[in-house]
Amino acid sequence: MVQRLLSCKSLVKRFKIGVSAVLLMSLVLAGCSQGDGKKTEAKPQEYNSAASDLGTTYPLKANKGITSWESLNNNAVTFFPNLADTPFGKTLAEKTGVNVKYIHPNDQQTKEQFNLMIASDELPDTIEYDWTGRSAGSYPGGPQKAIKDGVILELNDIIDQYAPNLKKKLEADKELDKMVKTDSGKYYVFPMIRNPSGLVFRGPMIRKDWLDELNLPVPTTIDEWATTLKAFKEKKGATAPLSVTYTGGNFEIRDAFIGAFHTSNNFYIDDEGKVRYGPVDPQYKDFLTLFRKWFAEGLFDKDFALTDSKALDNKILTGQTGATVNLLSGGMGKWMDAMKKQDPKFELVGAPYPTLNKGEVPFTGQRDFKYNPGPSKAITTAAKNPELVAKWLDYAYSDEGALLFNFGIEGESYTMENRTPEYTDLIKNNEKYSLQQMVSIYSKPNGPYEADERRNWNTFPQQDEAVKIWSNTEAEKHTLPAFLTPTDAESKELGKILTDVTNYKEEMFVKFIVGKEPMENFDQYVSQIKKLGIDRAVEIYQSAMDRYNKR
């Protein structure tokens, strides 16, 4: 039987710890109780010797459809339950000649449902997921292990033979080509490629109308933030002055506030260029102490561990929360658009990543790389016709496909003005729905294609200004690339270490902040993480980064 990521037994053990343990246990046990345990080994297809006559132009001559497992954009859910039903999905099927059955995981249980799918051996033809193994929400051990486990296919020959559009882009961009393969030179996904202006898109944001009313400046230091949040609580009645989402073990504050202490909430690169794990740094204790204090004082959301995207929407739009860390378009733009009629004074602006001292350049922040692993697609070993899957995926990298994925349907969602795509009033001036909602059903906000430099979803000048503010950090220097690939042997170690460390770290993270664990026990916490192998994980990432730099 193909070696899979997790057995049911290990899944149960893994989910016994954490904020959502009770909910996850029922899901895991239900998944593990199905079937008689007899599984047929999934083997890679002999695609070289059994190529079908699909044609060389679109639409393809496809007699059968394919299956794709991927998240459905939260805005699209407003209109349709499945991507196939959207104008984008219908047009993609028409243009490619391929009918697709989309399987969408629950937004709040993506990681858990992915793990159960892998353990079940019931795989679709293609999966859009983070295969890097870098975080809890990705494939433990990374792409090399996923290939060795018999879960996904090595794509070198497939791209060479059946994906001419992607092949052309990889040949023209050596930096990108270096990013999207393993150290041994194996391609493993059809990548999401960011454009240069789209690398910074998340950061701290705050109610500017409240600041003006209270005669307060936009805070830049930790002390200024404390003063501001206290004013929001006492004078604006905010019950959760600062709130962020916390789902699937991901604390979406990322490195805001944490970076003020010159550390990170994950692996990072220090000033000497060495890999480190932030949550065991001595200064990480200072961050925990700060947020423990803010939590006790009611400045940080007392329900943070239960706050998902819908809960945060409600808190922002009802005035319970005056500051958060979130997305440029799916956060700031969405909320300002939703409130422009209900409360014309409502205004959000980007705030600098906080520092301890006035005038410091923030140690880190959010800055992505050209290759975005999360929305990239791998072809699984269960695909009966990898050629068809590859050609379907390659359409997105063609000139025609790029316009559909970026802008939607010509004449409906955009028109060409002086050879430049321009959104129609249906998209940018819709009386009922926001731009973010409309583009989610006419195009694909994230996925395996190249984002167009001409695409701009900012509908407010505050968004353009926020990008400038959030870009003023040293994130490029200190962010560990998400696409480093360990060796097979390293992958086995890393998978177990990251699972154990992440579960324990997240459990203790919540306990420290809510006051259930004394801060005096921080050294014991660090000692336990070291026993779980974090130093070895750091060694593995350092080796992987050194190898990457030599590619």
Report what the structure shows.
- By secondary structure, the protein is of the alpha+beta class.
- The chain has 2 domains: 8-197 and 369-455, Periplasmic binding protein-like II (D-Maltodextrin-Binding Protein, domain 2), CATH 3.40.190; 202-365 and 478-549, Periplasmic binding protein-like II (D-Maltodextrin-Binding Protein, domain 2), CATH 3.40.190.
- The chain has helices spanning 8-15, 21-32, 87-96, 110-120, 143-148, 156-162, 164-172, 174-179, 208-213, 222-235, 282-297, 309-317, 328-339, 386-394, 399-407, 425-428, 435-442, 461-471, 475-478, 488-514, 522-531, 534-549; strands at 66-69, 100-103, 126-128, 190-193, 202-207, 246-247, 250-251, 267-269, 275-277, 323-327, 348-350, 371-379, 414-417, 420-423.
- Strands 2-1-3-12-4 form a 5-stranded mixed sheet, covered by helices on one side. It has a 3-stranded antiparallel sheet with strand order 10-5-11.
- Helix 11 (282-297) runs parallel beside helix 20 (488-514).
- Residues 1-51 have low confidence and may be disordered.
